[in-house]
Every structure is written in structure tokens, then in C-alpha cells.
Design brief:
CATH topology of chain A: Rossmann fold
Structural class of chain A: alpha/beta
Number of strands of chain A: 10
Low-confidence stretches of chain A: none
Radius of gyration of chain A: 19 Å
Distance between the termini of chain A: 48 Å
Number of domains of chain A: 1
Largest interface: A-B, 48 and 48 residues
Shape of chain A: globular
Helix content of chain A: 10-25%
Oligomer: homotetramer
Chain lengths: 242, 242, 242, 242
Amino acid sequence: MINVTIWNEFVHEKIHDEVKSVYPEGLHKALADGLNGEGFAIRTATLDQPEHGLTDEVLDSTDVLLWWGHMAHDRVSDEIAAKVAERVRGGMGFIVLHSGHFSKPFKRLMGTSCDLKWRVAGEQEIIWTVNPTHPICDGVDSRIILEHEEMYGEFFDIPAPDELVFISNFQGGEVFRSGCTFTRGAGKIFYFRPGHETYPTYYQPEVLKVIRNAIKWAHPARNAKQQFGKSEPVRPFGGVLV
Amino acid sequence: MINVTIWNEFVHEKIHDEVKSVYPEGLHKALADGLNGEGFAIRTATLDQPEHGLTDEVLDSTDVLLWWGHMAHDRVSDEIAAKVAERVRGGMGFIVLHSGHFSKPFKRLMGTSCDLKWRVAGEQEIIWTVNPTHPICDGVDSRIILEHEEMYGEFFDIPAPDELVFISNFQGGEVFRSGCTFTRGAGKIFYFRPGHETYPTYYQPEVLKVIRNAIKWAHPARNAKQQFGKSEPVRPFGGVLV
Amino acid sequence: MINVTIWNEFVHEKIHDEVKSVYPEGLHKALADGLNGEGFAIRTATLDQPEHGLTDEVLDSTDVLLWWGHMAHDRVSDEIAAKVAERVRGGMGFIVLHSGHFSKPFKRLMGTSCDLKWRVAGEQEIIWTVNPTHPICDGVDSRIILEHEEMYGEFFDIPAPDELVFISNFQGGEVFRSGCTFTRGAGKIFYFRPGHETYPTYYQPEVLKVIRNAIKWAHPARNAKQQFGKSEPVRPFGGVLV
Amino acid sequence: MINVTIWNEFVHEKIHDEVKSVYPEGLHKALADGLNGEGFAIRTATLDQPEHGLTDEVLDSTDVLLWWGHMAHDRVSDEIAAKVAERVRGGMGFIVLHSGHFSKPFKRLMGTSCDLKWRVAGEQEIIWTVNPTHPICDGVDSRIILEHEEMYGEFFDIPAPDELVFISNFQGGEVFRSGCTFTRGAGKIFYFRPGHETYPTYYQPEVLKVIRNAIKWAHPARNAKQQFGKSEPVRPFGGVLV
């Protein structure tokens, strides 16, 4: 059983009719429904809940956290953002979706601006697998076609990912590193590009399949807690510790 | 001509006799002398100067910044630390030495705790090259022996480096990823482990050779400024921008 | 159920008493016994069997192949070596143990000499985890101590590994990248250093734990077969194919 | 002064009028002219010369070898292919252009099939920089537009590159990792995608700029020759060598 928490700022869906018509109960609800049924225990949390729904109790029982935010990044408190980043370093899996590239926890974990080019013009995106051995590609076709998506274009200002899993081609001529893995401390991070709020991307089965795979991949290993600080030698050598 | 600024907190050397005896005019002065003569224009800056010696004027004319700090990390202002990190993202090379692993700018750029094991016991460190093609190893022997150094041991909580250049063996049984490269934005970062303040490490010619090579490597490329934000298609496709 | 085939040249154990006393029925038998009981279906194969025990029938039903060889690398036929490398590219997991670094299939897959330093002097090896998030480290302590092992030292002439999982410290002062992952085509490869034939390394529980984890990690993903060669456009653009 | 040898199979240009009209004296001549004037001493070599023009004397005085081949890969002798690969491992820089992805030396060094998708339909290729800090991008715009090129599409069956520098977008919807670095032994390798024989790609200034940068990058470091084989301990520990 993997405990999954889906965090969504849940603002667009309340105030923009175009978004509401695609995700009437919120992106988080569509994701929760779509990801169901693989031994995941799924909860959701949103910005306007106390502590943005990310209390210690919730985080203590979260193996993998999904994050979707866009227009309200600044309304996430610094304290909660710092706590989420710290939990990731401590081993919680973290799957950052689409415009979450500019979220506070992701930027803290990357150490870069996470900036990019963008355009909303209903164009076609084709996502190609460049790492077919990766468990995130398990059972996924070598390409995923999204008929209408927002464009994100390089240069995407992130550190070189540990593993590059997907690259997108956009009709207007751009490319984008659309599936990237990172580790920070004991935590595994997957950034996955698709999911503009005005397109029904999160209903598309291949997209959900990738996210399901990513949840399993990001599930923390049961590793011994790392030791830090002043240490006795493993192999005595006659030296005197100061 | 590469403009190099060597930043040193310059505290130990004033208050600890043991350190003063090794670096009477400060670590920065020993480094400045030792790195001289390769077409570098070298300046130094220290904590107690206004803006820690890192004014906009200084940073504007710095190609590569070296950083040594230890007991006074917290006395570096958040503002200056943020500015240094931002300059690195903008292209300034950044060479972080030894206990600089815990400095504010390095931690911001890494996104991790940067924690490690340590021990001061005068033990032998042997630094091995694991990437002999790398320009930082140019003309450097396949191993560097430091007769007495502080131990730093794994797990070193950094992101997986882009390139691993050196690994250290310590007498007490530990290993350490002692030479690591990263990029953040347009900037190149090299972390180099040696240099505890009570040992004459920065007088050792091989250590200085590595740092000289790293300065040349970290010198920023003359790249076109990256474009971000809303973008017209490169290849028109009949879509309508929203 | 993962189908595992353990390949051992099985020569030392027949002709060297010192080895026979440690592995009386062969290294492969000790490994097969030690790895049992995790949903693995384990078979063994040895050099002196027809086709070295690696018939198409055996390879067709192998998910992950383990390889131990040393004094008889040259007696492995080029044909079988090429076939094994091809199967790895096709998705078969491949775990190369200790002196297998010089085996024909591994050298073909790496494209390098795979040379290294070595010394048999009964010295202590300490293996440190440098990637605690990795599934190969799952449940493994942050260090593994082998009281007596052969030394392997850097520079280890391999391509930069995709992931560096373990680094060893040897008593004589060397270091070694002891746990390295690679992919080739659809196949996942793990090189794991320990296991000199005169030491009881493959009876040590932590070593077996790492190999069990590696088997699970190397198990091929169920990916769509990649397409190669002449391709129609996904997105018609009015061009004429020549 | 960097000694550059440009190797071209030089077959298309003699027998296909369409190619001859673009490169009347051969691709190698166009490249030699275009790359001139940066402190390079440039020679060319072709398939029909004795030893394909790659005698020991030529290789002994080559710092960086460029390779273009396509229809005659099989006519390169195994002996010369092996020698070239061995020289690369020994430190010679190696820049593999376009259809050289299927050349014998490149495949030996990669250990994979190096297969890909392709299509000749005169479509537009846009090459994007994804690593603006890299010296191969020095002074290169963030995108290069080639109005007419052959399509190469993912999955490109290579090992994960050490550094990914460029990604291409093709009009028909594909993407490709167009600029990839690798190291093998002491040698640096750069694969650069563009250059189909029927298009005037190698006259385009940005393409030549990238290749010039790559030559400088691939120039071997002056590293101490690596030691391999049986080794005395650096740090005596009382063990007895067997």
C-alpha cells in the first residue's frame, strides 16, 4: 500500500469557467479518480485548507506527494514550502506536475529559477520516451500524443536531471525535457510536464499510466537513516581525535 | 584574463593561534599567492568588509568566485548569500572549498542539507582521479596524497554531481566524493574537499594546480542570454495564441 | 517470479584447493543457495556445458543473468559473448560480479578496457552507500565491512556510470566505484565489485542482500518494443518522402 | 595548435549527382574549409586511401578526429575500426557526425546498436541548447534552424550521454538528442546530428561554430598516464601480497 497525497492549489477551477468545465471538481479530484486502483491510498489537499492541508499528520502518513499549482504559488506559505522540501529530503516521494515547476518547494529543491518558455495556443504535443528501461515507462508506448496542450520550451532552467525519461515536440517548433528525475537527500523527485488546466490531459490514460508508474518509482526505499557529524574511525589508525 | 575573487570568512586565522601559525595573513592570502601567474586577476574579499566585500561592483567584475567559510556561515547575510547564488545562476563560476559545503550560497544552489561525517585526527587523505579526461585533472597526477587532513565521509548529502572527478580515501576507513561539478542556470560550480584550516593544504602544489584548472573550467562561456516567458512559435502552425 | 540464471566459469573451484575449500560446489552454487527465497526461479550455468550453458532456450527464459568469471574469460566463445551482449540490449538484466569486469560481454557493452588496479593481500574493504535513495540499497546499512578482500583500485576504466551507488575504501589507500549502474538498449546492468574467489564474501548476508536488490532492479520493464528505421511523420507537414 | 583529421568515406559525392552538386569536392573538403582559421592544423583522410588514410603516422599526430560515413560503413576494415576506437580510449578526441552514428568505431565505443528512426523529406529541424554552460555552446545562439534536413528520431539507442547539449525538433513531430558527449578511457567523444549529404548543412555558420567548439572541447587533457594491474599499497598496512 502506497500512501499518496495529491495537492492542488484549486483556484482556477473555482474562478475560470473554462477550467471548471474541464475539471468541475478540481484537478485533484480528476487525478484521484484516475489514479485509483493500484494499491494506492489516495488523499487530496488544497491551498485553502488549514496549513494548506499539509499538516504534520498528513505528511507523516504520505509516501508520495503530487503537486499542481499555477496562479497561487505565492499564496503557499514559506513555512509549508520549507516543510515540504524538508520532507522530500527525508524520503517522501515528490511528483511535480506541469506549472508546479514554479512552485516554492520545487524551486527550493532545484536551486535554480526553473524558468522556461510557454505559449497557450492549443497546439499538439508529442512526448517521446528516451529511456525505455526506466520503470516510469513500464507499459507506456514509445510516444504519447496530446492533441491540445500548452507549449513549454527550452531552455528549462533546471539542474541536469539524473535521468531524462521523456522529451516533448511541440508543433510550433520547441522541445522540452518533459520527464526528469532527481534525488535530494533520501527523496526521489519526478517532474512531469503535461497538464494545462484548460485541456483534459489528466483524463488521458497514458498520462495517468505515467503518473502511476512514477508513484511506484518514487516510493521511498527502506534505507538505514544516514549518519552525519563527528564520527569515530571505522578502522583505527592510531590518530588522536581533536 | 580571468577575474578571480577569493572570499574567505577570515575568522579562525585571527582568533586561533594554531590556524594563524599556518595561514598568518589568512587562507585567502595564501590562495591568492599560490594561484598567481596564469593570467588571473586575483582579488580577495572577507566577511568583515562592507557587504562582506561582495558589492555589486566586485561581483560585476568577477568571472569566478572562490569560497572558504566555516565557523561564521551564519554571519553571512541572507541578502548577500542570495545575491551570490543569483550571480552563479547568471554565469559566474563558483568554486566551493572544504567547509564551504555548509555555506549559505552552496546550500541554496544544491537544494540539500550538504551534511557529511567529519573527524579531525591528522589522518592521511589520498585523492584519486576517477575522470582523467576532465580539464580539472589536466596535468594532475592520478593521486594526490595529503599527509594530514580532516576527514569528510559519505554519505555527503548533495545532488548526484554532473561529473565526479575525485574520490578520497581516508585512513580511518571512509570515502568521499572530493571533486564534484554541477551547473545551475548559466553557472558552473566545482566543489573541492581539501583545506582544513589547521593543515598547510593550500600550499601543496597539486592542490593549487587543481584549483587553477577549476578556475579555467568554471570561466563562463559566452552564451547568448536565454529567453524565458511567453514565446511566439518558431514554426507557424495556424494556432491562435490565447 | 523473476527468472535468474547464475553463470560461473567454475574453474578455480576445481583446480585450486584454497578456492575449493571456500566454495566446494562452486561460487554459483553458493550464490544460488544464498539468493534463494524471494520469488526468484534460480538456475546455474557454467563454462564447460554445451554453449557454456547459455542456449537460446535458457536465455529466452532468463530475466536477469549474473556473471562471475576470472581466469577463463578467453575460453568464452565470441559467439556466446556476442549473444549475451545482444540479449542484454534486448532487455535482459545483467549483474556483473567482481572479476567479471574483464569478461567479454561486459567489455562489449562498456566499450572500454575495463582495466583497474588490483592486489590480493587480505585487506579490509569498507563499502559505502553514496546513493541512499536507490532501490539497490533498500534495507542495506550505510556501510558494509568485508574483513578480507582483494583490492580493486581506481582508475577503473569504465564509462561514467548512470548511477554511482557504492564506493569502496581499501586499507592500502585505494578507492573504487564498487556499485555502478548502466543501461544499454532496453537492458539494465549492475556492476558489483566484491567477490574474490579465496574469500567467503558470497556468504555474507549484506552482500547477498545487495545482489537480491539488484536482481529486482534489473528485472526488465514491460516496454513497448522500440521502432527503428524509415518512419512516416507523426504530424503531416506537406513534405515529400524521398 | 590542435591537429585535426577529418575522415569522410567520400562515396556519395562521387556517384550521386545530387550530392556532388552540394559538395563537389567532398564533405571533408567543405568541412576543412569551413573549420579553418582557429589554430587548427587540418588534414583529411578518406576510405579509398591506403589504410583508409588512417595510418599510425596520421593517428599519432591527430588530436581530434572527425568522422562522416554512411553508405560504406561496412567497407571500413575491422582492423582500422578497432585501431580508431583504441586511439580514442587512449585520448584522441572523436567527433562523430550525422550518419556516423552507425560507423564501426562509434558502435564499438558505445556498446549499443546506435539505431534510430529516419526520414528524408526536406523538413525543418530546430536545434535547441539545453546546456548553455557547455563550452560546445560558446557563442552559439539558443537555437539553430536548418531549413531542410533529414529527420532522425528517438529512440536513439545510445547509452545515456554524460552531457546532453542539444535537442532537435523536427517538423514531422519527432525529437532527437542531437548533441551528446561521452568519455571512453582518456578520450572525449561528441556526437552531433546534422549533416545529411544532400543538404548544404556544413556551410551553415552556426553548425561550423558548434564543430569548432567541439574540437577545442575534445582536445585531450595532458593527464598522467593511468596505471593498471598489480599495485603495491600506497599506505602500508602489514598485509602480505599473494
